[in-house]
Design goal:
Structural class: mainly alpha
Low-confidence stretches: none
Largest sheet: none
Number of domains: 1
Helix content: over 70%
Oligomer: single chain
Radius of gyration: 17 Å
Distance between the termini: 27 Å
Strand content: under 5%
Order of helices and strands: HHHHHHHHHHH
Shape: globular
Length: about 250
């Protein structure tokens, strides 16, 4: 039922499943390390079909995706290595995961609410001159915080691409973001699996519920005001983000 609920919301609003699934699993009583690790693999699987579709439609800028991946994958691996070497048990870094989850939920909420106001009509000259470095740097940011929270590869990644390349077509931004998000979430999820942070029974039941619900939510969403729904969910994410960050 949780998988179906999140899948329906994703189809309805287009908001990534990570920002909804991980807090929901925590509310159900799953430990933070299991919620984050399982959701990362869930995201990798559910987003994979989108990459195939966008690749066929030639709506992926592979050069940008490779630059972001060059930053995010090493950052994810280093983050996982630090978790393994600095802590002897997953329960010891629970507070780190929940705090980072709260931070990324707040950022995702702000991106959804303020995206159009924050993004310029053109890329600032300083960023334009150092586009490669900024792209890799943004990948490093996502690599660290997505690994620690399972949140942000979708909404925040898309906002970063809109800032770096305002002239890029929306479908190309979505495709490029997916092409970066899938390897990142897969590597981060695989690392959490090696740390013992993935529940495969939970993963399977989430997929069974979510895949058909995404299709249903997409059809229903055509009849409803998308902006109002996104604002509602953004408010919910902000409340949950404040909860996990400060309480």
């Amino acid at each position: 039922m949780a998988g179906a609920g999140v899948g329906f919301a994703v189809g309805l609003t287009g908001i990534g499943g990570g920002s909804l699934m991980t807090p929901l699993l925590l509310l159900f009583g799953f430990p933070p390390h299991i919620a984050v690790g399982t959701d990362l693999l869930y995201a990798a699987i559910t987003k994979s079909s989108g990459v195939v579709m966008h690749h066929k439609q030639q709506t992926i800028d592979w050069s940008v995706a490779r630059l972001m991946t060059a930053g995010s994958i090493p950052a994810a691996l280093i983050t996982l290595l630090l978790l393994k070497t600095l802590f002897t048990d997953s329960s010891q870094y629970t507070a780190i995961l929940t705090t980072n989850l709260g931070f990324m939920l707040i950022m995702t909420s702000l991106v959804l609410i303020l995206r159009q106001r924050l993004l310029p009509d053109r890329t600032p000259d300083f960023i334009e001159r150092h586009r490669t470095g900024f792209t890799v740097g943004c990948g490093i940011f996502l690599g660290i915080f997505v690994t620690l929270s399972s949140v942000g590869a979708g909404a925040i990644g898309t906002a970063i691409l809109m800032l770096l390349a305002p002239a890029m077509l929306p479908t190309r931004i979505v495709g490029t973001d997916l092409a970066h998000a899938v390897p990142l979430t897969f590597v981060a999820g695989a690392g959490h699996f090696l740390l013992g942070n993935v529940d495969f029974l939970l993963l399977g039941t989430l997929l069974i519920g979510s895949l058909p619900a995404i299709w249903l939510g997409t059809r229903v969403g055509r009849q409803l005001p998308a902006k109002l729904l996104q604002l509602l969910l953004a408010t919910i994410l902000m409340v949950m983000g404040l909860k996990y960050s400060f309480f």
